[in-house]
Known about the structure:
three-stranded antiparallel β-sheet
Amino acid sequence: MKKTDSDLPAKPSVQVIERMFALMDVLASREEAISLKEISERTGLHPSTAHRILNDLAIGRFVDRPESGSYRLGMRLLELGNLVKGRLSIRDAAMHPMRELHRLIQQPVNLSMRQGDEIIYVERAYSERSGMQVVRAIGGRAPLHLTSTGKLFLAADDPQRVRAYATRTGLAGHTRNSLTQMPALERELSRARASGVARDNEELELGVRCMAAGIYDDQGRLVAGLSISAPADRLDESWLPKLQFTANEISLALGYKPRAEDTPRGAGALSLPTR
Length: 275
């Protein structure tokens, strides 16, 4: 039977492991190397004990000694961290928060990523009770400028790239509400940059409106969008803070560290980083 996090003990059963954790936490608190004296004081370990454990960690390259008597985190941690990062799945990180958001609003919640000039739907939390037919299946694609998530990606691009996109695609429309002219699209993208969210007002499918918030990785890059789809007359603005909170939760799971200026007060939103 697989153990959950709640089944694990609150502290290691082996004392030396607990001490090692304490040493690593101290080293992680500063970018520069830290003296053995300070490490000993901050961990409460005797200098000889700290010295012995740190030397053992240095053998495995988990700790570096740039000069005698000082220590910092080692390159082995970077190597292992890159392995973990490479195995992180946006879909896996998003599934539980998406299902929880769907439970709260009872409307389809979509996870989409950019692929060239389109978004691709990679996951969805959905139930028949929403009363809305899902038009785009998982794996389906749609133009960037006609979707809420697609607009987030365009808003993160610089103006030259947006104009190049418009030239390549011709900004072809699907409905009478589609944004097919550059000035209208630029105004829409400006609003998305300012608010950190984007909308689709029956631009892809008549009768369907969407709102989207961005998902960011540990480098602050927009990697996906989380959107709510609903019948045009039932999209509820009170869902927006819940959507932003959920997108933020997924971003944090991917290692994103928001800056103070990225979070509008009271909204829990993430403004779009500029490239």
